[in-house]
Recover the amino acids of this structure.
């Protein structure tokens, strides 16, 4: 089996194994808490319905009203600032889900906008990531020259470490900023920054949703947008290095397989249309047609194919026929593989 096929199969197996492990861990960590919360909320619901004499239909209506009013707590979401924030979330494929279009025109435009904007954003982030990697390689080379290192070139590992450190600085700094402005704990802010910059975007934590920040805090809005765009570019630089490394490994495997095929072709000869290995065994071809004596032309300087072809050929096609010795002066050509 080819090395590339083995690697692809290994990646599939490892990915599904990783999914199974993740499911088992999340089940162990979250299922009990989910069950206890559901039991608590169910008990509160029953007590409220009993205390205020609310019918299940009325309680369901209250739930709908609360859920529909939740996005409006942060103020207008579709004025220019909020719409720009939404467009950024769509282009970056974060998709918090804190606000969504409700009109038919808005939904149609959102789909068309995403079809063009997502590839544009991917190309932009990839290009910025490449420029950041180039800048990091220049800085690393100058730092190595200053430190008088023997090898001054920037290796892939150096670039991965540099972009990884920059990503960590951005996430930790952003977590401190959002913790201050949003009132979250530092761990929750760090969790929000990680989910945002990896474009997971669960939507359980969304910035700019308190105290009508979209309308009253333009500086904070600008800071949040800069954090999202620049942070995604840095993360794209890290991902670009990983993808480049994987593609380089695949290219090396392809080159190695081509070299193996080319070296194998040096040991295969073609004898009058038949592919013959150096040990004289017939590898491919068909039973040769019987020609007249005058039409039979030898491929070597000797008289391997004599005038008595009937002695060499029987009804099945071959009788005692052996290819000429490899040391003979054959007029051969290499078989294309």
């Amino acid at each position: 089996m080819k090395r590339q096929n083995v690697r692809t199969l290994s990646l599939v197996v490892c990915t599904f194994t990783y999914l199974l492990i993740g499911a088992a861990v999340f089940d162990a960590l979250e299922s009990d808490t989910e069950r206890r919360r559901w039991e608590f909320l169910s008990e509160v619901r029953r007590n409220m319905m009993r205390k205020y004499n609310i019918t299940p239909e009325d309680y369901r209506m209250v739930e709908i009203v609360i859920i529909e009013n939740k996005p409006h707590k942060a103020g207008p979401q579709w004025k220019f600032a909020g719409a720009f924030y939404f467009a950024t979330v769509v282009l970056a494929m974060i998709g918090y889900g804190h606000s969504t279009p409700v009109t038919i025109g808005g939904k149609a435009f959102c789909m068309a906008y995403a079809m063009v904007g997502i590839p544009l954003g991917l190309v932009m982030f990839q290009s910025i990531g490449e420029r950041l990697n180039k800048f990091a390689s220049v800085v690393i080379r100058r730092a190595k020259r200053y430190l008088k290192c023997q090898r001054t070139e920037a290796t892939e590992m150096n670039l991965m470490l540099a972009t990884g450190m920059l990503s960590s600085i951005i996430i930790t700094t952003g977590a401190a900023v959002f913790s201050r402005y949003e009132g979250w704990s530092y761990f929750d802010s760090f969790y929000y920054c990680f989910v945002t910059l990896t474009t997971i975007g669960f939507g359980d934590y969304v910035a700019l949703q308190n105290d009508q920040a979209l309308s009253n805090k333009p500086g904070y809005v600008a800071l949040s947008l800069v954090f999202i765009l620049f942070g995604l570019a840095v993360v794209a630089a890290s991902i670009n290095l990983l993808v480049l490394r994987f593609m380089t490994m695949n290219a090396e495997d392809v080159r190695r397989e081509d070299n193996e095929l080319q070296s194998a072709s040096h040991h295969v000869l073609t004898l009058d249309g038949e592919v013959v290995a150096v040990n004289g065994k017939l590898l491919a071809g068909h039973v040769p047609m019987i020609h007249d004596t005058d039409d039979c032309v030898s491929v070597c300087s000797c008289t391997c194919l004599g005038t008595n072809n009937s002695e060499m050929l029987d009804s099945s096609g071959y009788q005692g026929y052996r290819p000429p010795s490899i040391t003979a002066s054959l007029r051969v050509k290499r078989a294309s593989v």
Remarks:
- The mean pLDDT is 79.
